[in-house]
């Protein structure tokens, strides 16, 4: 009797609709430096032999459509021992990218430092610490 009047079909349709609407949306990560420029930080992932996988936040700036980070001594050390070098994991704006090339950019260190000072008011203190590594982050086609 329930099947004949369509009640079970309607309940099944409602359950299916709720499942679809409530399911997490899976979409490809989109490398968008303009959108990232509005973010305060991104996270880098390294994988060093003595430490394993490690995610850590860093400030970012976008210059000429490219994403740059300035790393202190500890973060630079993690990048140097990274077993997946020159690739890093990057998490930014709610997206994860599994293979982002960290390209040393010593010629941009001064521009990146000035951009950091312009973007972050607390850089007035941070700029006096050592920042031995400036990286340009270049995405590959592979995300996580």
What's a concise summary of this model?
This protein is of the alpha+beta class.
Give a verbal description of the structure.
The chain is of the alpha+beta class and 144 residues long. The chain has a single domain (33-139), classed as Pnp Oxidase, Chain A (Roll). Helices cover 31% and strands 33% of the residues. It has a 7-stranded antiparallel sheet. β1 (41-48) and β2 (52-59) form a beta hairpin.
Layout of helices and strands, plus pairs?
Blueprint: H1 7-22, H2 33-36, E1 41-48, E2 52-59, E3 61-63, E4 66-71, H3 73-81, E5 87-92, E6 95-104, H4 109-119, H5 123-126, E7 133-139
Antiparallel strand pairs: 1-2, 1-5, 3-4, 4-7, 5-6, 6-7
List descriptors.
144 residues, alpha+beta, Pnp Oxidase, Chain A, seven-stranded antiparallel sheet, 5 helices, 7 strands, 33% strand, globular
The name of the CATH topology is Pnp Oxidase, Chain A
List the domain count as a whole number. 1
Number of strands: 7
Mean pLDDT, as a whole number? 82
Beta strand % = 25-35%
Level of helix content?
25-40%
Main structural class: alpha+beta
- Strand adjacency order, main sheet: 2-1-5-6-7-4-3
Shape: globular
């Amino acid at each position: 009797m329930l099947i004949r009047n369509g009640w079970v079909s309607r309940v099944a349709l409602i359950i299916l609709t709720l499942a679809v609407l409530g399911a997490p949306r899976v979409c490809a990560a989109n490398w968008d430096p303009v959108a990232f420029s509005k973010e305060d930080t991104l996270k880098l992932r390294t994988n060093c032999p003595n430490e394993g996988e490690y995610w850590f936040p860093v400030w970012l700036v976008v210059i000429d459509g490219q994403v740059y980070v300035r790393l202190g001594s500890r973060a630079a050390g993690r990048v140097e021992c990274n077993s997946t070098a020159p690739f890093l994991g990057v998490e930014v704006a709610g997206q994860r990218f599994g293979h982002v090339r960290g390209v040393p950019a010593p010629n941009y260190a001064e521009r990146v430092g000035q951009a950091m000072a312009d973007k972050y008011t607390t850089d007035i203190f941070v700029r006096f610490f050592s920042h031995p590594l400036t990286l340009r982050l270049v995405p590959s086609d592979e995300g996580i």
